[in-house]
Amino acid sequence: MNIDPVREWQIATVTSVNDESPRVKLFKLDLANETKFRAGQYFDIRLTAPDGYQAQRSYSVTSSPEDSNSIELAIELIADGEVSAYFHEIVKPDDQIELRGPIGGHFTLSPNFTKPVLLVAGGSGIAPIISMLRHRRSSTRIAPTVLMFSVRTEADALFAQELEDMAQENPNLHIIIALTRSESETPDSKQRETRRIDRSMIDSAITKLAEQPARAYVCGGTDFVESIGNHLLDIGLAYHDIRTERFGP
Amino acid sequence: MITNNFFGRKRPEPTRPVPPGQYLEDGFPVLSAGPTPKVDTATWDFSIEIGGAEIGTWSWDQLNALPQTDIHTDIHCVTKWSKQDTDWRGVTIDALLEDAGVEPPTGFVMAGCDGGYTTNVPAADVLDGKALLAHTYDNEPLAPEHGGPVRLFIPHLYLWKSAKWIRSLTFMDQDVPGFWERYGYHMYGDPWREQRYSND
Ligand SMILES: Cc1cc2nc3c(=O)[nH]c(=O)nc-3n(C[C@H](O)[C@H](O)[C@H](O)COP(=O)(O)OP(=O)(O)OC[C@H]3O[C@@H](n4cnc5c(N)ncnc54)[C@H](O)[C@@H]3O)c2cc1C
């Protein structure tokens, strides 16, 4: 078994802040200490007020593990959110942020895993999964992979261009972006669906793998993960082949 | 380090202090390493093993026929949220041992669950009324995503020790890491000492 040495708190420096969608910003952080992590892991962030009050939250790394000197985070603004609002409203380049990690180890995917994989993300749940895909992009081993990505509208499809480029250059990677609140009934691309991910969408997605996925990774809000997890059990995936990360209510 | 321009949100005064690094949550977040397994109370059973021998097996009906215990307490998840004044009902491990007519074991215990999840605690932490096999939360049957029909409930430790979808307790002499403990989470997990990860 892998044991992840969880490091001491370290101070990271924000190097860039960018809008990726109306509700999600990307933050690049330079780490004080070189920190090896695996695709899918997360860091704990700790904010401290002058009166000593602290707020801690977890954020998945979106960047590839090949760079162990900096990490990228994708943070969604949550209504009345304490930490996400701080990041969206206050944080700017050169700010310092206290964090520790990497944490987690079950929701990780190595490029050496070459059996067919199904990735299912809801909204900001794409964060750990884009790290997995970025890591795989640099690898010569390319396992059959399907990504199903559920977002409200096209504008919420984080990393859409990069995902399309990856699918373009890699015939073994298939992406389906499910727009749950799309205006139009008919999708304007063959990589788009205009409804929630349901059983039949999963059934047709996994036909692209030629065989049942050997493993599935599901990440997003709790209701999303519960619903997809149930579908995957129904289609016969073994319980222990389904790995999940739940971001919140 | 004081974070630049962070003052924290106006926070409700907790009824009681919360452990370090925790914040109060009104909802009941769900954290699990996999999907919610489908557990049928008609076929569900629970067993206890001590020193390699099974000392008892209980069906759903047998569990419900044992003396029931209510616990009113605060709960603490390692992902930083705490919830105060929660109500749980279930059967103490003491009641199960008593039912099987065996003496309380010493050493350590591994919880085993539907889906293969495991977690380890010292035996003493599940005895003397400190732990339940809980099937009722807030006077309602425990919801599947929260571990229903039955989860282990050890409220004085971080909640990952309160294994969802519990099926067995295996008492043993040595402390052996369970599922999250093998990934670097703390062997004991006391929220008041902020024992989140192995070197805390
Ligand atoms: C392992 C892990 C990895 C995570 N990775 C990411 C990530 O990569 N990107 C990211 O944006 N978030 C991620 N999260 C969620 C993140 O840790 C925070 O929970 C989230 O940013 C909200 O924190 P907050 O302080 O802004 O809101 P809080 O002040 O904690 O909550 C404010 C209100 O919003 C509700 N709320 C909390 N979280 C959510 C949510 N996700 N959706 C809707 N309502 C919510 C709360 O119940 C509360 O009522 C991750 C969570 C976990 C456990």
How is this structure best summarized?
Chain A is α/β, with parallel strands linked by helices. Chain A has helices at 82-89, 126-137, 160-169, 199-206, 222-234; strands at 10-19, 24-30, 42-48, 54-60, 70-76, 96-103, 117-122, 145-151, 173-179, 192-193, 215-220, 242-246. Chain A has a 6-stranded antiparallel sheet, with helices on one face.
Portion in beta strands of chain B: 25-35%
Q: Which spans of chain A have pLDDT < 50 for at least 5 consecutive residues?
A: none
Estimated radius of gyration of chain A: 18 Å
CATH architecture descriptor name of chain B: Alpha-Beta Complex
Strand/helix succession of chain B? EEEHEEHEEEEEEH
Largest interface (CB < 8 Å)? A-B, 49 and 38 residues
Proportion of helical residues of chain A: 10-25%
- The largest sheet of chain A has its strands arranged as 4-3-6-1-2-5
CATH class of chain B: Alpha Beta
Q: Using DSSP, what is the number of strands of chain A? A: 12
> How many discrete domains of chain A?
2
Shape descriptor of chain A reads globular
Instruction: Provide the list of bound ligands, each named once.
Output: flavin-adenine dinucleotide
Rg measurement of chain B, Å: 17 Å
CATH-scheme architecture of the largest domain in chain A? 3-Layer(aba) Sandwich
The proportion of strand residues of chain A reads: 25-35%
Relative helix content of chain B? under 10%
